[in-house]
Fold this protein.
Amino acid sequence: MIRTLSLLIINLFYLIASGQTTNLFKPQEITNELHKSNIGKVTFMDGNIPLEQYKKSDFLQSFNLTYKSNLNIRIFLDNSITNYLHQLEPNLSAEELVKMGNLQFSFYIDNKFIYKDNINSGCNFGSDNSKNTSTTLRIPLTSSKPENLWALHMWDRFKINGGETALTNGTHTLKIEIRPYIISNQNNDIKTGDLIAKGEIKLIIKTPVVTAEQIAIQTILPNSGWEISNLEINHQKIEMLNKEIASYNLKEITSVVAIYDGKLLIEEYFNDAGRNTLHDTRSAGKSFASTLMGIAINDGYIKNEKQTLSSFYNLHQYANYDTKKDSIKIKDLLSMSSSFEGSDAHSDSPGNEENMYPTDNWVKFTLDLPTDSTKTNGGTWDYFTAGVILLGDILDKNVPDGLEKYADQKLFKPLNITNYQWQYTPQKVVNTAGSLQMTSLDYAKYAQLYKNNGIWNGKQIVPKLWIEKTFTKQIKIPERDNQFYSYLFWNKTVTYNNKNYETYYCAGNGGNEFIIFKDLPLVIIITSKAFNKPYGHPQADKIVHDYLLPAILK
């Protein structure tokens, strides 16, 4: 008995002295023979092969990496993520560990370090409990369909931060190393653990063959509804643009349209889109709520944009009432500067749009939100989709026959826009948060309407005063140099050839933009399906600066 106790004490002393810690969770038992023989390895597979069907013969040694491919990795570990983090910081609870750490991915091309990504602590690997117990992880690096967006974003970040440059035509070795990491103190210092898995694969890169037909400027077909411009442009610049899109250096662009001096100058379609395609331009559709608000105010259905929420709702009936809610104005919602505790930029914000969509009443969701003690109404810009839902609800309740019919009669019919598609809220009200789908040429009509100071075919559709207010820098966008927000329109200045060109534009996820140049007779429409990709809007900017302006301004 004494000898046994002595051995236990010695073993305990050894564990403490050697820095070992016990697990917080019992990891999944490793019974799979493939797993047993590949612990500590990152293996590569074509698509998602279920673990129970995964065989050694499925391990890829090489892979033809194309624009639309499905390169996945499966990682075989000997412990769970939470337990690895516990080894780094034994004094923290399991909840603290998963809030402060996760996995670090290091990417090498041809044995040269390229990029390191400490993935966000909120990134999961399947079930919510996967970090505590799982010892096998499946992660898509590339995918022909949207899934596990954090992993696809990681691969995109790798490409943006040197991967694309390194992966030239030919064969390259990709190596991935994985370690646990944790933010170890208030200074946000990163503490990294030992290597827990690694693997490599030969990637075969071949630039797509681009045909002369893909490069050629597309002929503007008859019956566009626009007078055709005879302005001479630099054809070579548009051909270069078409080549970049065809070779996927500019990705998932579906259309580029330019209107010059009210006439159709450029009309190009890509990636299976055409003149009759209805494009989902996501939040670019928010701007239509601003337009319809201006029309409704002019028609007398809304007094003005200074009206407060208390004019339309009994706010005492909703949760988290305080007097700040009473004084939130339509203008504050139009300029994304209300005091609601809502921010789409922060996933932990109560009013984040992702928290709204699963609910059965988006208006109630928004009006139930608390206010933010750090915000004053009209004080600070913070992107807030739920506020635009309130604008749609206010309009729907105050214009005759509801917002959908009102929009059709007062805006779309005067512009001869007949082929379009709304999305709807759970209350069957048109969704002013976005995704109003139209053709590129109809989006161009909408943008040109603003360029025309609200006039179309000699008729004032949108009040000139509302256009002027919209083309005013209503509020500065924090952390963006010389960029502003207006009434659900964005503002920025484009510099080309040492000249500044001010623009107001509608913008939506994926790189969708309707751009109105304030001091040039130019409107540009760019539609894209690069949804949730970090390159969506940067490549739209590149199209304007590197190709369209050089082609048009010469």
